[in-house]
């Protein structure tokens, strides 16, 4: 039984990358490491054809999007953007995101220490500019 | 285990959301009553005072319930009690769901809507997270509740406290009903860290 696929070709006007002027290297890293579960478009792995993997993924994506959806960034009020950025920063700082269960199969999603530092600095600057 | 509880949580939230929507519809006819100038406004900032409308009874009781459960979370975190904080967090979610903003000006309603949306999410996290995570969300929740009180006012005597150490020394505020400093961000580890910034009422 196929699960509902989280896929969309449309990048909405409210997308994080559209409304913020994100440097290319950071944009690329966030896309690869975060967008599978935190946007309306998942780049599904081949093993998604295998159940129960698809159900497992669907669950993660549903939870991830409810918590933070980069595609809907500009729909958040400034107050919520501030909260989201605070959580993004602390989750990355504490190595809680991206999830270990995700990076174990997506090695390219893992942040190096430098990338961690860069992304946190960018998010902090964005937070201060709100 | 955790997953099921999150799922249940989401389901409950959805149901609550549905019930609040239908409640609001039922109350539409209640017109806001214009406010008399001698009403105590509490600790309000200057904006929007001229066109203030009086919050109706349910509006006042919603903010009262919010402050009560907020203080319960605060006390639980002071006592390093994750379970009690989670319980009060769950009740606070319901309080925010029930918040009736109909007695406020449209500008205030918008502000309150933003506050509620944000604060509800923090309360949800507090209801289902380990203690350090609860404290993180409590820090942002405190800002929301402080801003809410600036609009709704309160008849409670409250102290706005500040701990300069928390959040990598960026500092964080909280509200307390007693003057003595009891730190909810560090609990027993640094009970007396902090200072009173101001008194409300």
Which helices and strands, and how do they pair?
The complex is a heterodimer of chains A (130) and B (201).
Chain A: H1 16-19, H2 24-38, H3 53-67, H4 78-93, H5 100-103, H6 113-128
Helix pairs in contact in A: 4-6
Chain B: H1 2-26, H2 57-78, H3 82-98, H4 106-128, H5 131-152, E1 158-163, H6 166-169, E2 172-176, E3 195-200
Helix pairs in contact in B: 2-3, 2-5, 3-4, 4-5
Task: Describe the structure in brief.
The complex is a heterodimer of chains A (130) and B (201). Chain A has 6 helices and no strands.
Characterise the protein shown here:
The complex is a heterodimer of chains A (130) and B (201). Chain A has helices spanning 16-19, 24-38, 53-67, 78-93, 100-103, 113-128. With 130 residues, chain A is mostly helical. In chain A, helix 4 runs antiparallel to helix 6 (113-128). Chain A starts with 15 loop residues before the first helix and ends with a helix. The mean pLDDT of chain A is 89. Chain B is mostly helical. Helices cover 56% and strands 8% of the residues of chain B. Chain B has helices at residues 2-26, 57-78, 82-98, 106-128, 131-152, 166-169; strands at 158-163, 172-176, 195-200. A three-stranded antiparallel beta sheet of chain B has the order 2-1-3. Chain B is globular. The A-B interface holds A 59, 63, 66, 77-80, 82-83, 86-87, 90 and B 3, 6, 10, 114-115, 117-118, 121-122, 136, 140, 144.
Helix content of chain A: 40-55%
Main beta sheet strand tally, sense and closure of chain A: none
Give the CA-based shape of chain A. globular
Distance between the termini of chain A: 45 Å
| Main sheet overview of chain B | 3 strands, antiparallel
Tell me what portion of residues of chain B adopts beta-strand conformation: 5-15%
Alpha-beta content class of chain B: mainly alpha
Attribute tags:
heterodimer, A: 130 residues, mainly alpha, 0% strand, B: 201 residues, 6 helices
């Amino acid at each position: 039984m196929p699960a509902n696929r989280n896929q969309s070709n449309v990048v909405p006007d409210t997308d994080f990358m559209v409304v913020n002027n994100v440097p290319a290297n950071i944009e690329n890293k966030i896309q690869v490491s975060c967008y599978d579960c935190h946007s309306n478009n998942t780049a599904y792995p081949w093993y998604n054809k295998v159940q129960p993997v698809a159900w497992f993924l669907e669950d993660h994506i549903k939870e991830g999007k409810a918590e933070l959806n980069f595609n809907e960034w500009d729909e958040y009020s400034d107050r919520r953007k501030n909260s989201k950025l605070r959580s993004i920063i602390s989750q990355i700082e504490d190595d809680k995101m991206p999830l270990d269960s995700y990076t174990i199969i997506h090695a390219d999603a893992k942040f190096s220490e430098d990338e961690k530092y860069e992304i946190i600095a960018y998010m902090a600057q964005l937070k201060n500019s709100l | 285990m955790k997953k099921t509880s999150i799922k249940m949580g989401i389901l409950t939230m959805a149901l609550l959301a549905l019930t609040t929507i239908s409640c609001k519809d039922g109350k539409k006819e209640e017109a806001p009553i214009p406010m008399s100038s001698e009403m105590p406004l509490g600790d309000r900032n200057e904006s929007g005072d001229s066109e203030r409308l009086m919050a109706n009874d349910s509006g006042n009781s919603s903010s009262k319930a919010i402050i009560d459960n907020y203080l319960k979370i605060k006390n639980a975190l002071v006592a390093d009690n994750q379970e009690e904080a989670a319980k009060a967090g769950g009740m606070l979610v319901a309080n925010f769901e029930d918040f009736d903003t109909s007695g406020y000006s449209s500008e205030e309603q918008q502000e309150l809507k933003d506050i509620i949306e944000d604060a509800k999410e923090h309360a949800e996290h507090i209801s289902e997270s380990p203690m350090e995570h609860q404290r993180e969300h409590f820090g942002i929740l405190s800002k929301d509740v402080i801003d809410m009180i600036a609009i709704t006012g309160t008849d409670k005597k409250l102290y706005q406290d500040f701990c300069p150490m928390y959040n990598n020394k960026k500092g964080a505020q909280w509200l307390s009903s007693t003057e003595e400093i009891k730190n909810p961000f560090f609990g027993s580890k640094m009970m007396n860290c902090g200072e009173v910034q101001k008194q409300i009422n």
